[in-house]
Specification:
By secondary structure, the protein is an all-alpha fold. Helix content is 84%, strand content 2%. It has a two-stranded antiparallel ribbon. Helix 4 runs parallel beside helix 9, helix 5 (112-138) packs antiparallel against helix 6 (142-173) and helix 7 packs antiparallel against helix 9 (211-246). The longest helix is centred in the last third of the chain and has 36 residues, at 211-246. It is globular and about 55 Å long. The termini are far apart. 34% of the residues are buried.
């Protein structure tokens, strides 16, 4: 048991932030926990209000914020005790990023023949992106961080290029309302996802021991998660509801 505890503690980092910096991150983590669990309840309550073919997208949104809420609760609890485990973020992203892409594909109205290979490609790229990002995130070497940042950016750009292409094509064949909601979802996804690679570089730009870099990195990741999960999920829900209203005569 002592061996297991010692092994586990190697993954823990001591929180070095103090004063207002510590409190800011603490409060942001608390906000994210509350937002994720509130969104979880909201999505489950609204799942029955959309057509069956889009209902799974709303359920996936609930699963995403539920997973994120759990991991942020663990992060918040550790932070309260003066510790931090970067692995919780990456465990969360490894599960939720593929699901975010899946829920989008569901509401795009693609045929199963087209959606299946797209799902495989995007999920594979997402797993590669998260897996390649983690070694650089926990490294104290700037050169190592740069190497894994560049490697992770390859599937990152690939994913965004495919998503942009599919949503752009979808908006051309949809009604004005659905097209507007899809563009909103795309905008939220792009805005949130562009924060991650920038926040990743703060320890390199400002120095590993910079309290400002650590504060902005943690707040940046947290705000991006809020945009990419509950807020993005609301956009997906809006698309699903609009599609449901337009297809009302065929909805059971």
């Amino acid at each position: 048991m002592d061996h297991l505890m010692n092994t586990s503690s190697q993954w823990m980092q001591q929180v070095t932030l103090t004063g207002n910096d510590y409190l800011l991150v603490y409060n942001v983590f608390s906000l994210v926990v509350a937002s994720m669990f509130a969104a979880f309840v909201y999505f489950l309550m609204n799942a029955s209000q959309v057509a069956k073919q889009y209902r799974s997208a709303v359920v996936v949104s609930a699963v995403v914020v539920g997973i994120a809420g759990y991991h942020y609760f663990r992060i918040f609890s550790l932070w309260s005790d003066g510790q931090f485990n970067e692995g919780y973020r990456y465990a969360d992203w490894l599960l939720t990023v593929p699901l975010l892409l899946i829920e989008l594909l569901i509401v795009l109205g693609l045929t199963s023949e087209k959606r299946r290979p797209l799902t495989i490609r995007l999920v594979t790229a997402a797993v590669l992106m998260i897996g390649l990002g983690y070694p650089g995130e926990i490294s104290t070497s700037d050169s190592t961080k740069w190497i894994f940042w560049v490697l992770a950016m390859i599937p990152f750009v690939y994913i965004l290029a495919i998503v942009y292409k599919e949503i752009t094509e979808a908006t051309k064949r949809e009604s004005a309302g659905v097209a507007k909601a899809l563009r909103l979802a795309l905008g939220l996804l792009l805005l949130a996802w562009l924060v991650y690679p920038i926040a990743y570089l703060f320890p390199i730009i400002f120095g590993q021991d910079s309290s400002m870099a650590e504060t902005v990195r943690q707040v940046g990741y947290s705000v991006a998660d809020l945009l990419a999960k509950p807020v993005y999920g609301l956009a997906i829900l809006a698309v699903a509801k609009l599609r449901t209203r337009e297809e009302a005569p065929s909805v059971n």
